[in-house]
Write a structure and sequence with these properties.
By secondary structure, the protein is an alpha+beta fold. It has three helices and eight strands. The strands form two sheets. A five-stranded antiparallel sheet has the order 1-8-3-5-6, with helices on one face. A three-stranded antiparallel sheet has the order 2-7-4. β5 and β6 form a beta hairpin. The structure holds zinc ion (ZN).
């Protein structure tokens, strides 16, 4: 069994941004030479998320609208410290990682699935994602 680990850095351009990172992850899977196993994609931040869904422009706008409705403007305690409570609360609702099977040397995603890094408190530089490929 092999463990192949690599980090990537992401720069976001706006407060809320859905960034398709599937191609970067595919390159890491190729680099790992692992044919059968699993991959973990983990974001090291409390105001971001990793999600899998369809890369369709209308749907991405819908998701932004939906998540805004779930976390309304309000007085939040964390805002007295950091003024970004809403970004943390959105991150609480989502996930900081995803796990995907590796089959025949490729992520076994469905036809309409992409891997997204979701920025919830941008714009930021140096967002770090840790990718771990385990298998053989
Ligand atoms: Zn904060």
């Amino acid at each position: 069994m092999t463990v192949f680990k690599k980090s990537i850095k992401i720069t976001s351009q706006s407060k809320f941004q859905i960034i398709n990172i599937t191609q970067s992850i595919n390159e890491i899977v190729n680099e790992s030479h692992i044919k059968e196993g699993i991959i973990s994609i983990f974001s090291k931040h409390s105001t971001t998320a990793i999600c899998i869904n369809e890369d369709e422009i209308g749907l991405k706008e819908d998701f932004k609208t939906f998540i805004e409705k779930l976390v309304p403007n309000d007085k939040y305690k964390h805002d007295f410290i950091d003024n970004n409570a809403k970004s943390h609360l959105k991150s609480f609702l989502l996930s900081s990682s995803e796990t995907i099977p590796i089959t025949n040397g490729r992520m076994e995603l469905g036809t309409w699935q992409s891997v997204f890094f979701v920025e919830l408190d941008g714009p930021r530089t140096n967002r770090t994602i840790v990718i771990t490929v385990v298998g053989e």
